[in-house]
Amino acid sequence: MEMPAPDKGVIARRAAIAEELRAIVPGEGVIVDEDELRPYESDGLTAYRTLPLIVCLPETVEQVAAVMRYCKAHGIKIVPRGAGTSLSGGSLPLADGIILGLGKFNRILEVDYDNRCARVQPGVTNLAITTAVQADGFYYAPDPSSQIACSIGGNVAENSGGVHCLKYGLTTNNLLGIELVTMDGEILRIGGKHLDSAGYDLLGLLTGSEGLLGVVTEVTVRLLPKPSSARALLVGFPTSEAAGDCVAGIIADGIIPGGMEMMDRPAIKAAEAFVQAGYPLDVEALLIVELDGPEAEVDHLIERVRAIAEEKGAVSVRVSESEEERARFWAGRKAAFPAIGRISPDYYCMDGTIPRGQLPLVLRRMRELSEHHGLGVANVFHAGDGNLHPLIMYDANKPGELERAEEFGGDILKLCVEVGGVLTGEHGVGVEKRDLMGTMFNADDLAQQQRVKCAFDPDGLLNPGKVFPILHRCAELGRMHIHRGQLPFPDLPRF
Amino acid sequence: MTQALKPETPAQLLDAIAWANSDRKPLELVGTGTKRGLGRPMQTAFTLDLSAFTGISLHEPAELVLSAGAATPMAEVEAALEAAGQELAFEPPDFSALLRVPGMGTLGGVLAANLSGPRRIKQGAARDHFLGFEAVSGRGQAFKSGGRVVKNVTGYDLCKLMAGSWGTLGAMHGVTVKVLPRGAKTRTVLLFDVDAAAGIAALTDGLNSPCEVSGAAWLPASVAARSGVDMVAREGAPVAALRVEGFGPSVEARCGMLRALLKDRGATEELHSHRSHAFWREVRDVAPFAGADDDRIVWRISVPPTEAARVIAATAGIKGAEAYCDWGGGLIWLAVDAPRTGADGLVRDAVATTGSGWAQLFRGGDALRAAIPVFQPEPAPVAALTRRIKDGFDPNRVLNPGRMNEGV
Ligand SMILES: Cc1cc2nc3c(=O)[nH]c(=O)nc-3n(C[C@H](O)[C@H](O)[C@H](O)COP(=O)(O)OP(=O)(O)OC[C@H]3O[C@@H](n4cnc5c(N)ncnc54)[C@H](O)[C@@H]3O)c2cc1C
């Protein structure tokens, strides 16, 4: 993975820069000691590591703004960082860049039930929001599996999802406002407690922009009343085709389940061995379908889903009769990643989305690729929305395996695009999928996206090396290619 | 005299815009023209007629997606979805009566204006259902974003930027949206004789309950009295209304829960299928201000729901003022008899005191829409950002220049 060439001049001035930053962020907030920098050298994509130049941990928005102004004035790069759980290398440091950590922004500022929202600082963890409001019957809907650790600021930057996003949406569908510090050091409030935007939807644009457009210093999230009940079905199928048909059948029946997850045989086996969730081991595909809402609805829909599953050839159907049983159904799925971690020294988690109808083809091709690359793969799948998480098993200590795993992963993502899908459903592009952007977008598409970047950060100081395979200079992107100067197609209808 | 360019293919669209760009000829983008009365009036020598880009190219109900030419009439989209038991869950409004235009316009127009109906509070806005597009920028370059799957975070989410950009960033010719199953059943619980504050408090109770409310509106007595739904009109009282939709047994249960929840607030009634539909259509389409002889100025205002009653009170003194709420109080439709000024000072002051929100001059004559800001004026740094974003897409200001803000 090639990153922008480090600026030697900046690296040489490291001590002086640290001193100047200490004038902005006093106390322990500026880290230069190598041992203390070490924990920041990678994020959840641990194959990539770089020691940052300096880590800076501001405590106030004014400090953030001053750091940004300082870095802009001196041409120093910044990598924003929340909890560092990104799986795409979004918060991978730069040798000549400052990690701007938002960890000290860890307060819930306001809970406003009457307007169904909460105002929180970006370093608050995803789960902490729900924890703060659940006693009052509310929750924050997006629930990435990393929710005990990941920060809401990181969720905004990655537009994170979770198992409930088919029904409740991703992060972008659950935000009302943010406070943003631009690379100019300007503090902007975008959105608030009202709905929609009077002008361009900057909130929507910023969500999922992977830390390239600004630093989020406050987030207003939507709170939802907690569904009064939830039950799940655990359904086994002899083929992934049958499981896919069942998913289609459920949706065709007008049902949007709260969660609908699929696992393939290797994933089922690993999960069962790890947590003994009681999964059937003689099936090719397992579906967990969770229905939530008022009891009358859940009880009604459970029976409809059971009937659809049986019609589509399910070989085993279990319905949760208690909260404990429902939790047990989920236990295996939630432990799928660590379960793979137990049977393989390393694993690489992919995140493509496909039109769900293509699942059988994609799984078949993936088996072929698995043989070709000589590496095992297990699949967990957000089945309702077509978001695949193939887990490629490898051993980083064996020479060449990491490279093979990455090649295999790249092949899977290209396959996703080829069948009409996309490179990433929720983990983001980061450095990981950066060089594959060209499989989905042509040069003009990417240039147009980079012109958005130029509107926010013309010097390219914020999180460079992420998302875009080729960094164009803004002046070059702004240039116009002048077309001919005559009215086109004179014989077209004109009235 | 305005001349129209009517490209028939994406390549011709590209040519047309490339020419306009090189010759600095501003274009007004038009689908079927139903939203021409919205936004700031423009004087362009040319219109860019996009009406050739029609037709549904993909509808896969089980994948929850539909792709179509951007100028596909909404009527065609809705018919196709209805046949599959689906809908656009953001409940696109039909402003034809309010704006005195012949129809609902096109799918691309609804997205470009980010217009959503009562279900916005539960299912999100048009922008939340907008998955992908193909367009030509003001630079005369083709570009696309998003895709045809419902979950995608690859690259910047330009769909969000295009939604609500009123054709100022790109001319879309193809769009993809998320489509969802329509509820089998709908019912509405009515609570009569509550003023704005009490009404919105009742809506809050409903929205904060696990009843999955999909519509929450409050109407003053004068508006309720003009409803075409007999049970709403005949009480002669203000009314708060909460809608539930979905599967039969669930709808019945939730309706019962809501009535129990509201019982201390007053007497409740229930609207069943046909009446419930008719009622929410009125709320959605601003029917209360769409009467043939109603030529008042109409504002569309969004504030935090708890501020709505205060905004309504603060604007009640304006001549001819009448207001009702949707989105649990988060959306206020305000009609005023102020053809020359729109009473914009009072309206925007009222919004400003809430600390969060905007007011859009929605219906008003060309002269008024040229004289006062139609969209909420942005703070200077945001306005500067808006201009820089526009520069990236349309540096020579050829696409709908000035439709939203002067110079943009
Ligand atoms: C075990 C595991 C399971 C996971 N499961 C899921 C899942 O189910 N769904 C899912 O969507 N993701 C999942 N993830 C991925 C990850 O948790 C999310 O992407 C998460 O949102 C990252 O949050 P973070 O605070 O760790 O951000 P970081 O990793 O610190 O940063 C992520 C990106 O956001 C930027 N950023 C962070 N904070 C800010 C800020 N305040 N302002 C501007 N930019 C900022 C960074 O520059 C970087 O580009 C999982 C990760 C792990 C390790």
TrEMBL record, chain A:
GO MF term set: FAD binding; oxidoreductase activity
Q: Which one Pfam family would you cite for this protein?
A: FAD-oxidase_C
Q: Which domain of life is it from?
A: Bacteria
Q: Where is the FAD-binding PCMH-type domain?
A: 48-226
Cofactor(s) the protein requires to work: FAD
Which InterPro entries did the record assign? FAD-bd_oxidored_4_C, FAD-bd_PCMH, FAD-bd_PCMH-like_sf, FAD-bd_PCMH_sub1, FAD-bd_PCMH_sub2, FAD-linked_Oxase-like_C, FAD-linked_OxidoTrans_Type4, Oxid_FAD_bind_N
Keywords, alphabetical: FAD, Flavoprotein, Oxidoreductase
Q: What is this protein called?
A: FAD-binding protein
Q: Which organism is it from?
A: Marivibrio halodurans
TrEMBL record, chain B:
Write the record's keywords in alphabetical order, separated by commas: FAD, Flavoprotein, Oxidoreductase
Q: Which residues form the signal peptide?
A: none
What is the recorded name of this protein?
FAD-binding protein
Cofactors needed by this protein, per the record, are: FAD
Domain of life according to the entry: Bacteria
Q: Which GO terms describe its molecular function?
A: FAD binding; oxidoreductase activity
- Outline the extent of the FAD-binding PCMH-type domain: 1-182
